[in-house]
C-alpha cells in the first residue's frame, strides 16, 4: 500500500481527494445497530451474567441436598465443588468458623466463583463439647475406618454407661464473594437433643440416627428432609445466610 507522509500530502489535498471519490460512488451511511439492553446484573460477583453462580465448598452429599433446598429461593446456581474439580480443603483449625472460612476460601480460589462453606459437628455435653470440629474423623480415633456408620458406632461405644445424653449439632456457614473477600458473611445454627442408645431411622446422614429431638419424639433420621431443614442447625444457619446474601449481595431484588 502506498502511504503518503503527511508532509507530502497537505490536509486540504487529502480532503479534496476524499470528497471527489464520495461524489462519484455514493455509499449509504450505515445505520448504527441498536445495542441489546444490558442483562440485569444480579450480583457484583458475576458481572453481565443474570444468574449468579456460587460454589458449594463441601464434599458431603447430605449437606449439599439440605443447603440446595433451603437456599433455592435465592435463585442462584449452587454448584458442588466436586463437579468443578475442586479438591477437599484442609480443616486444621480449632473452631467451626475458622474451618468454614478455610473451606470457602479454598473453593473460591480454585473455582474463581463466590463460595459457601459449611463446617458442622456434634458437641456432646458429657465430653466437654467434643468431638466438635473433629466430628467427621471421630471413628478413626478408635481404629475404625472413616464413615458415618463407624462414627455412630464409635460414639455409642464411647457413651456406654454415660447417663448425661445431651448433645448439640452445630453448623457454621461462611459465604465469600472471592477468596480475598474482606467481609465474609457468617451464619450459625444450633440444635440440642439427646444421643440415643441405638441408631433409629434411615433418613439424613451422619449422626442423624442417634440425634433424638425431644420436641418431636424422634431422631433426625426419622424426619423427612423438609422437616429436618425446618428445625435443624443447618436449616437455621441457611435461612440466616439466605437473608444476608439477599441484603448484601443482591440488594434491590425481590
Ligand atoms: O467438610 P465437608 O466437605 O463439608 O464435609 P464433612 O462431612 O467433612 O463435614 P464436616 O467437616 O463439617 O464434619 C461434620 C461431621 O458432622 C456430621 N454432620 C454434619 N451435619 C450433620 C447433620 O445435619 N446431621 C448429622 N450429622 C451431621 C458429618 O457427617 C460429619 O461427620
Ligand atoms: Mg470436612
TrEMBL record:
Per its UniProt entry, which superkingdom is the organism in? Bacteria
Q: Which residues bind Mg(2+)?
A: 90, 119
Keyword tags = Hydrolase, Magnesium, Metal-binding, Nucleotide metabolism, Nucleotide-binding
Please provide the Gene Ontology terms (biological process) for this protein. Answer: nucleotide metabolic process; purine nucleoside triphosphate catabolic process
This protein's record includes keyword Nucleotide-binding: yes
Q: Which reaction does it catalyse?
A: ITP + H2O = IMP + diphosphate + H(+); XTP + H2O = XMP + diphosphate + H(+); dITP + H2O = dIMP + diphosphate + H(+)
User: Where are the compositionally biased (Pro residues) regions?
Assistant: 27-41
The record's top EC class is hydrolase
Give its E.C. classification number: 3.6.1.66
Per its Swiss-Prot or TrEMBL entry, what cofactor is needed?
Mg(2+)
Tell me, what does this protein do in biology?
Answer: Pyrophosphatase that catalyzes the hydrolysis of nucleoside triphosphates to their monophosphate derivatives, with a high preference for the non-canonical purine nucleotides XTP (xanthosine triphosphate), dITP (deoxyinosine triphosphate) and ITP. Seems to function as a house-cleaning enzyme that removes non-canonical purine nucleotides from the nucleotide pool, thus preventing their incorporation into DNA/RNA and avoiding chromosomal lesions.
Instruction: Supply the name of the protein.
Output: dITP/XTP pyrophosphatase
Query: What is the species of this protein?
Result: Candidatus Symbiobacter mobilis CR
Amino acid at each position: 500500500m502506498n502511504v503518503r507522509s503527511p508532509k507530502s500530502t497537505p490536509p486540504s489535498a487529502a480532503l479534496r481527494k476524499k470528497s471527489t471519490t464520495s461524489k462519484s460512488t455514493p455509499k449509504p451511511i450505515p445505520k448504527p445497530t441498536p445495542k441489546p439492553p444490558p442483562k440485569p446484573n444480579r450480583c457484583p460477583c458475576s458481572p453481565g451474567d443474570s444468574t449468579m453462580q456460587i460454589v458449594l465448598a463441601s464434599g458431603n452429599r447430605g449437606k449439599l441436598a439440605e443447603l440446595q433446598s433451603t437456599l433455592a429461593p435465592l435463585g442462584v446456581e449452587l454448584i458442588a465443588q466436586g463437579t468443578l474439580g475442586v479438591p477437599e480443603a484442609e480443616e486444621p483449625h480449632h473452631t467451626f468458623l475458622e474451618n468454614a472460612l478455610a473451606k470457602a476460601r479454598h473453593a473460591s480460589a480454585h473455582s474463581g466463583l463466590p463460595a459457601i462453606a459449611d463446617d458442622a459437628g456434634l458437641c456432646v455435653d458429657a465430653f466437654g463439647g467434643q468431638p466438635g470440629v473433629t466430628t467427621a474423623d471421630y471413628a478413626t480415633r478408635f481404629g475404625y475406618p472413616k464413615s458415618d456408620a463407624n462414627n455412630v458406632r464409635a460414639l455409642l461405644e464411647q457413651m456406654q454407661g454415660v447417663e448425661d445424653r445431651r448433645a448439640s449439632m452445630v453448623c457454621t456457614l461462611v459465604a465469600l464473594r472471592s477468596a480475598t473477600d474482606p467481609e465474609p458473611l457468617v451464619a450459625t445454627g444450633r440444635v440440642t437433643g439427646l444421643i440415643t442408645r441405638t441408631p433409629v431411622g434411615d433418613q439424613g446422614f451422619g449422626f442423624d440416627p442417634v440425634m433424638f429431638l425431644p420436641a418431636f419424639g424422634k431422631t433426625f433420621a426419622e424426619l423427612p428432609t423438609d422437616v429436618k431443614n425446618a428445625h435443624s442447625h443447618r436449616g437455621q444457619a441457611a435461612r440466616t445466610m439466605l437473608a444476608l446474601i439477599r441484603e448484601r449481595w443482591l440488594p434491590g431484588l425481590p
